[in-house]
Amino acid sequence: MDLLEPTREAFALLLRGDPELLQIIWLSLWLSLAAIALVSPPSIALGFLLAKRRFPGQRALVVLVQAFLSFPTVVIGLVIYLLLSRRGPLGSFELLFSPTAIVIGYMAIAFPILVVFTVSAVQGADPRVYETARSLGASRMRAARTTLREVRFGIIAAVVNAFGRVVSEVGCAIMVGGNIAGLTRNMPTAIALETSKGDFAQGIALGMVLMALAVGINVVMALLQGQGGLK
Q1: Cα–Cα distance between 114 and 148 in angstroms, integer?
Q2: Would you kindly state where each structural domain of the chain is located, as residue ranges?
Q3: What is the phi/psi pair of residue 49, to 5°?
Q4: Are the beta carbons of 7 and 79 closer than 8 angstroms?
Q5: Which residue of 92, 163, 217, 231 has the fewest C-beta atoms within 10 A of its own C-beta?
Q6: Residues 6+ apart with CB under 8 A from 161
Q7: pLDDT tens track of the chain, all 231 residues?
Q8: Rounded distance between C-alpha atoms, residue 8 and residue 33, angstroms
Q9: Residue of 23, 14, 37, 45 whose CA lies nearest to 211
């Protein structure tokens, strides 16, 4: 197979700002960022509580969340599909095959990543940070914020990894979004569709964008770590 010509066409699509391509890129970024923005606060809060609090069943809950990391995303998509389908408990909201359904799916995928990374970061922090803040009269909330600030690069890594996972997700997005042009078609689903049709140019162009995003995110992460004095 000659990939030179499709690659040239892919560059041409990107350079001339093909409207369909830009719409797919924008939708993919918007859905991913919305999901991460919505799920990050509760996930980080839960991760902090699991790391700092002791209660019956805590270990089992941590293990359960860790197990969710290995769940196939297509299975997550199937569960959400069943919940949102007409006969499902949330069918009356008519969310299936909509951008909202994809956001819900992305949130479900990102949730265990954010929780597990936060637990790891907080458990690895010096416990004296929280204890000192409390002894100086800080409320539990403020002491928690102080601890999270101390492990902020671990939290940033959690958010970056979660974003990278959802922006490249295809199985769940197709199941709950339906890959509808102009409505739910994002970069990964468009790549799958166009490749199956034999239209490699658009697939290659979108693949380039995804790779550029991956490199850009890691560069930003490295710069942030450098500013924090990390090597």
Answers
A1: 13
A2: 4-229
A3: -65, -40
A4: no
A5: 231
A6: 113, 117
A7: 567 888 899 999 899 999 999 999 999 999 999 999 999 999 999 999 999 888 888 889 989 999 998 889 999 999 999 999 999 999 999 999 999 999 999 999 999 999 999 999 998 887 778 888 878 888 888 888 888 988 888 898 899 889 989 999 999 999 999 999 989 999 999 999 888 888 789 999 999 999 998 888 888 777 766 655 444
A8: 30
A9: 14
CATH placement of domain 4-229: 1.10.3720.10
Dihedral sign (CA 103, 104, 105, 106): positive
199: DSSP letter: -
Lookup: tokens for 196 = 């199956």
